[in-house]
Specification:
Length: 263
């Protein structure tokens, strides 16, 4: 990790009045928080202007370009071992990002477990990590804000990813977008804790990209194709396979299955 650069610290700019720590460069905001957890309190947020080794789920990379993308991690201390935020942080964060985009008049959908899509292209991803021994929950957010199509390179990402600028044909103030995300994340977490998981998953259903779609679910152990059947009351993805059997997953990789042809 880059430990030479000192962050800019802004009081009251995190969740619940926490601090915002902004570094010029970090390899990964999540990794930094996990490795230096004693420096941070509940509600603090760590941002990197440039992130050189951002991580997604299944160790995928996430590109963060200076002044074009947002990379930030929120530090959350669960209130107890039964705090619903532990199991719901990914959908909660995705819904907060969706609500943020709506504030800028950008319609989006959420895709289980942690993607936000605009016009069926990925504009945001989330990496949530929980360390039970430290009672530490970190929600890492990557959001494409001022990226152009050329910024996605020649590896096909331009066909699967987009940004706020591409969708609205204008640039955005990244700090302003972060402030909006912080407000929406605070609101969504409090809704979860006050109203329960049912309220969160009810909202999710209204914006669920996978509704009615044929999907392919991959884990390290198996691959299942079938019809998406929504989330259960705990937030697990449900799929009904070709034989009519229902399967539930806490974690998996989900893609659309365009080859399926059955009723």
């Amino acid at each position: 990790m880059d430990t030479s650069a000192k962050p800019e610290i802004q009081e009251g700019m995190g969740l619940w009045g926490g601090k915002l720590f902004t570094f010029p460069t970090l390899e990964s905001t999540n990794r930094w928080v996990l490795d230096n957890h004693s420096l941070y309190n509940n509600g603090d947020m760590v941002r990197a202007i440039a992130q050189t080794a951002g991580r997604g789920r299944f160790e995928r990379t996430w590109t963060t370009l200076t002044n074009k993308s947002l990379a930030v991690s929120a530090v959350i201390i669960p209130e107890s071992e039964n705090d619903p935020i532990i199991s719901c942080i990914s959908p909660v964060t995705a819904l907060a990002i969706r609500a943020t985009l709506q504030e800028y008049r950008i319609n989006s959908t959420v895709k289980w477990p942690n993607d936000v899509l605009v016009n069926e292209k990925k504009t945001a991803g989330i990496l949530a990590e929980y360390d039970a021994a430290k009672n530490l929950l970190v929600s890492g957010i990557g959001l494409n804000i001022n990226m152009n199509s050329d910024d996605f390179g020649t590896n096909g990402l331009a066909q699967t990813a987009t940004s706020m600028k591409i969708e609205e044909n204008r640039e955005f103030d990244i700090s302003d977008v972060l402030r909006t995300i912080t407000v929406q994340l605070k609101t969504t977490i409090e809704t979860l804790r006050e109203k329960g998981k049912e309220r969160i998953f009810e909202t999710w259903r209204h914006h669920d990209y996978l509704v009615g779609r044929k999907i392919l679910v991959k884990t390290h152990e198996l691959i299942i194709s079938g019809t998406y059947s929504g989330l259960d009351k705990e937030g697990r993805l449900q799929i009904i396979d070709e034989k009519g059997h229902k399967h539930s997953f806490w974690s998996a990789d989900v893609t659309l299955n365009t080859t399926m042809d059955y009723k």
